[in-house]
Amino acid sequence: MAWLDLDTERWRCGPRGEEGHHDHVPVYESGSEVLQKFQEKWNSTKQQRYPAMYSSVVGGIILDPSMMVIPIDDHMVHRGHGVFDTAMLSNGYLYELDSHLDRLLLSASKAKISSPFSRETLRAILVQMTAASKCRNGSIKYWLSAGPGDFLLSPKGCTAPAFYAVVIASGATAAAAGGGGHPRLREGVRAITSTVPMKDPFFATMKSVNYLANALAMAEAEERGAYASVWVDGDGGVAEGPMMNVAFVTGGGDLVVPAFDRVLSGYTARRVLALAPRLVDAGVLRSVGAARISAADARRCAEMMFVGSGLPVAAHRRMGRPAGQVGKIALALSDMLCEDIKAGPDRLLVPYDQAS
């Protein structure tokens, strides 16, 4: 319990008489004082610095990480009224930017959020921001929000929709990928079934900022010593992980990705479905498809794996398999995706030499 002693103007915590740590709360009257505190914070921590951010509220690209902020009255901040997406940055190329941008706008439409710019302008902003960052490996994340305005539930008070984006540089991730920005997980990871209720399909298929269920599912997995968890729906069907899709290889050689009617349509998973038929042609797989798969059938599969833009493939460690051993299909898909990221058709070269 915290209370303010109005006679002494001192904060006290706990029972009366027990003095807390906040004897005096500073009051900053100027923006320069606040900026100095932000800069001190960044300089005193090991928190990752972000090479660049775009904010439609500011109307430009920000290179000082201490100024990369969002208004506290933004509807996305206090009501979760926002959507987001991401694109990987590998060796100076943005991977599948257009597909992810299309999904952002689809999510925004479902969330009743209009864009302050045309699709072409959004795309140009993201490319220019990435170029200004001079970052060549990592990722970019971007958000559309109902915008700042007030603290009410209705978005009517929002002055205008907002667009934010940030470049996130990779460190060890790029090294693990041989400089390409993607790790190659050659050892299996442990997965559990989540006890956290999964989202309703309407929200699960929309990439909104409401990731509380996802965060709790990930925390649950970490508490139990697992890499991540997997949701199972009320009908006993496998759904997805907290930040990635899942895929299975049956004993008969069928690659199955759970259908996207109740889960987020992951573009890495869709890319797997597009690339994997090569393994059918090579006689390694019998078939490839998106379909419902029960949890009981999934547990009997020969291989299980997470599929997501930041992995791109992480195989589940199976009971009865030697520790760390990963199936040949998971390894093959990982190699195919890494090669696609390096030289595939859905890459956009970032014109760093044109950055202002």
UniProtKB/TrEMBL annotation:
Cofactor(s) of this protein: pyridoxal 5'-phosphate
GO molecular function: catalytic activity
Highest taxon above the source species: Eukaryota
A Pfam family per the record: Aminotran_4
Residues annotated as transmembrane: none
Family: Belongs to the class-IV pyridoxal-phosphate-dependent aminotransferase family.
Protein known as: Uncharacterized protein
